């Protein structure tokens, strides 16, 4: 370890200690003390009899409502699962492999084939990890105003800060505002990433409960520089002292070659979901114990993906020459979605929903392209109409749910079917089984794409078939044995990107110039089994997550590691007379070597390559986490084993290394007024 690293560790330790001790004296009560309500709607039935009594507020009163209307409460605990989610995505990234810098793509260590969205998306999937779709937006209901701050240091210059403010003006109306401000320079040249994500929500229920509405507005702007990866791997793999300063490593796109590049995703969305109860269940046994409601869902969104480059780069093909320089490729998508539904609920029959969906789309580029081999249109537009239904019911310890959708008119969507049965065996064991079947066209950028580079122009909407996915899944949750999940997927017409470059083209560094979308000819069988189990002994715990995967296919187009494992050994204890809860330990993550997908900066996509394998290296993190009232503090030494290991073989994708040893810290802080 260098003197600079040792000095950094020492300063961060004292900063961590100072922040923790000072918080013990400065932080206000985690929850507001009981107080008289100023709004009569906040007084419970018991309080109405004695209006002078204070209303008790607990953390379970601060509700989070997800898009599917599942509800939980704000969780301010500190667990190992919270440590797994304390990252850029704010979710467990066990099945992902991040690039060196935050905000850059994640390679996949596993695939999720079940997609309940009926229609193609814009594409550029590698650039959308930080993009909030409408199903990612949460709503709130809180007795007092609440603020949540999420902060984490980035790589070199920049910061990652999420701020959420939510309040109820009355018991029936809630407002919330969320904003993410992010910037990270990165360790390598021309690798900067930055973003701004803004979401404002409201939800309202009338006093008699007959009408309810929720809505949100989202504006998102994601920008990343593209350096094309390393131009000389030897500089990274040799361990040469000169290039341990990663800013000195040569990259493919740079200012010296006048090929600086960046891409951008920008989206704006307006979403509305409201329904009215025509009649509600009555407590009077003489009245029907049923409800009937009518509802409407509306979403309008504009989004574009843009790739910019100062000059043409040989890596993307300069023979024939680009149509125009500088490069400016821009794909636009405008969508409007309407759903009208009716829901009937009965204590015996369950909950039955029928719906009609209308989806209009306009995916376009600026001009029609006429070539010697034919014409490439500048847009795909049209309308889709679907009929769907849902069913939910509970029979004792058995719960059943399912949904379906059938295409009535349109070329993009097909069918969707989901079914799930769950059984609570006892307090310690539960099982579930599910099925899924879907059919729809692949993403728009595989159907139509235009670029100033001549190699990246295609139209496949009349050639490609709908992707068909059929899957079954099983799960067992046991307090004694852990959580086991297994899924089997059969995929037809699997759509993927790959390069048709010859050996000579690859030798000349032009593999990416020949990347195009294709569809598999045979059926792909994909098995995934995951087991998670924690062992505890006094204040020590060992959390293990292991995943096994197997793919049977005629072509090697779906590549995943056979085994992925993550193991965390940690120690937990209350300290400072229980004023602080401390958690410290070590996490090891490892996956077997496999043909890792390569990244294409112009398309913002990963493409299949079968020339070389990556993986088979450990990633060890050391962490110290603490909780003081409602504040969680995190300190982590990431990829610690690179301090003593001299094997520089850790790639997230070909030409794109994973990050070196780095120390990062941050916090999540909830304020309750």
Overview of the structural elements:
The protein is mainly β and 673 residues long. It is built from seven helices and 37 strands. It has a 22-stranded antiparallel barrel. The protein has a three-stranded antiparallel sheet with strand order 2-1-5, with no helix packed on it. A hairpin with a 7-residue loop joins strand 3 (96-98) and strand 4 (106-108). It is globular and about 75 Å long.
Keywords:
three-stranded antiparallel β-sheet, 22-stranded antiparallel β-barrel, single chain, 7 helices, mainly beta, 673 residues
Mean pLDDT: 90
Which structural class do the helices and strands define? mainly beta
- Regions with little confidence, pLDDT below 50 for 5+ residues: 1-29, 33-50
Q: What is the radius of gyration computed over CA atoms, rounded to a whole number of angstroms?
A: 27 Å
Per DSSP E runs of 2 or more residues, the count of β-strands stands at: 37
Main β-sheet, in a few words? 22 strands, antiparallel, barrel
Q: DSSP strand (E) fraction? A: over 45%
What is the global morphology? globular
Number of helical segments with 4 or more residues:
7
Task: State the end-to-end distance.
Answer: 45 Å
Strand and helix map with partners:
Layout (H helix, E strand, L loop, with lengths): L2 H24 L18 H5 L13 E3 L5 E3 L6 H6 L10 E3 L7 E3 L30 E3 L4 E7 L5 E11 L4 E12 L8 E13 L5 E16 L6 H5 L3 H4 L16 E19 L10 E20 L17 E20 L3 E15 L4 E3 L2 E3 L2 E17 L2 E12 L3 E14 L2 E12 L3 H4 E2 L8 E2 L7 E12 L3 E11 L2 E5 L3 H5 L7 E5 L4 E14 L2 E13 L10 E13 L4 E12 L6 E3 L4 E3 L11 E10 L2 E8 L12 E3 L2 E2 L4 E11 L1
Antiparallel strand pairs: 1-2, 1-5, 3-4, 6-7, 6-37, 7-8, 8-9, 9-10, 10-11, 11-12, 12-13, 13-14, 14-17, 15-16, 17-18, 18-19, 19-20, 20-23, 21-22, 23-24, 24-27, 25-26, 27-28, 28-29, 29-30, 30-33, 31-32, 33-34, 34-37, 35-36
């Amino acid at each position: 370890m260098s003197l600079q690293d040792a000095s950094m560790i020492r300063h961060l330790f004292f900063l961590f200690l100072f922040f923790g001790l000072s918080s013990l004296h400065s932080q206000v009560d985690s929850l507001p003390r009981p107080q008289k309500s100023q709004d009569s709607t906040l007084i419970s039935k018991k309080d109405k009899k004695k209006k002078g009594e204070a209303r008790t507020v607990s953390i379970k009163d601060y509700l989070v409502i997800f898009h599917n209307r599942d509800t939980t409460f704000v969780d301010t605990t500190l667990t190992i699962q919270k440590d797994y989610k304390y990252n850029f995505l704010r979710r467990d990234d066990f099945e992902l492999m991040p690039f060196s810098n935050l905000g850059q793509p994640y390679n996949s260590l596993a695939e999720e084939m079940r997609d309940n969205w009926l229609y193609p998306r814009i594409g550029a999937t590698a650039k959308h990890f930080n993009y909030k779709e409408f199903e990612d937006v949460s709503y709130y209901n809180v007795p007092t105003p609440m603020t949540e701050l999420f902060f984490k240091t980035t790589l070199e210059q920049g910061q990652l800060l999420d701020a959420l403010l939510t309040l109820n003006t009355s018991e029936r109306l809630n407002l919330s505002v969320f904003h993410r401000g992010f910037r990270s320079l990165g360790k390598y040249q021309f690798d900067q990433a930055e973003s701004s994500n803004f979401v404002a929500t409201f939800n309202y229920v009338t006093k008699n409960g007959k009408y309810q509405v929720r809505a949100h507005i989202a504006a998102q702007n994601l920008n990343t520089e593209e350096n094309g990866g390393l131009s000389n791997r030897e500089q990274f793999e040799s361990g040469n002292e000169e290039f341990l300063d990663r800013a000195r490593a040569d990259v493919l796109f740079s200012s010296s070659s006048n090929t600086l590049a960046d891409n951008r995703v920008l989206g704006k969305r307006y979403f509305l979901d409201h329904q009215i109860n025509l009649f509600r269940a009555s407590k009077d046994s003489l009245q029907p114990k049923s409800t009937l409601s009518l509802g409407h869902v509306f979403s309008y969104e504009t989004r574009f993906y843009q790739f910019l480059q100062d000059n043409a780069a040989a890596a993307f093909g300069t023979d024939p020459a680009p149509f125009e320089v500088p490069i400016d490729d821009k794909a636009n998508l405008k969508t409007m979605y309407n759903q009208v539904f009716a829901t009937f609920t009965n204590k015996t029959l369950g909950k039955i929903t029928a719906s009609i969906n209308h989806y209009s789309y306009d995916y376009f580029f600026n001009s029609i392209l006429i070539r010697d081999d034919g014409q490439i249109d500048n847009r795909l537009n049209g309308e889709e109409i679907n009929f769907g239904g849902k069913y939910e019911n509970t029979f004792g310890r058995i719960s059943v749910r399912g949904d379906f959708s059938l295409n009535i008119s349109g070329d993009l969507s097909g069918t969707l079917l989901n079914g799930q049965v769950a059984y609570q065996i006892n307090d310690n064991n539960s099982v579930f089984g599910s099925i899924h079947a879907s059919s729809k066209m692949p993403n728009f950028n595989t159907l139509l794409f235009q670029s100033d580079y001549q190699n990246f122009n295609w139209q496949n909407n009349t050639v490609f078939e709908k992707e068909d996915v059929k899957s079954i899944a099983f799960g067992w949750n046991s307090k004694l044995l852990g959580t086991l999940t297994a899924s089997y997927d059969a995929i037809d017409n699997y759509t993927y990107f790959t390069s048709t470059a010859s050996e000579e083209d690859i030798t000349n560094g032009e593999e990416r110039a020949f990347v195009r979308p294709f569809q598999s000819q045979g059926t792909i069988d994909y098995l995934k089994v995951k087991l998670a189990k924690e062992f505890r002994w006094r204040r020590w715990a060992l959390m293990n997550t292991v995943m096994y995967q197997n793919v049977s296919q005629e072509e090697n187009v779906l590549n995943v590691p056979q085994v992925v494992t993550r193991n965390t050994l940690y120690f937990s204890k209350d300290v400072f007379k229980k004023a602080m809860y401390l958690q410290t330990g070590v996490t090891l993550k490892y996956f077997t070597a496999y043909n890792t997908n390569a990244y294409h900066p112009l398309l913002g996509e990963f493409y299949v390559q079968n020339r070389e394998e990556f993986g088979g290296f450990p990633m060890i993190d050391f962490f110290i986490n603490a909780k003081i009232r409602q504040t969680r503090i995190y300190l982590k030494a990431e990829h610690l084993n690179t301090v003593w290991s001299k094997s520089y073989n850790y790639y997230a994708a070909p030409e794109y290394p994973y990050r070196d040893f780095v120390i990062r810290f941050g916090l999540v802080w909830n304020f309750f007024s």
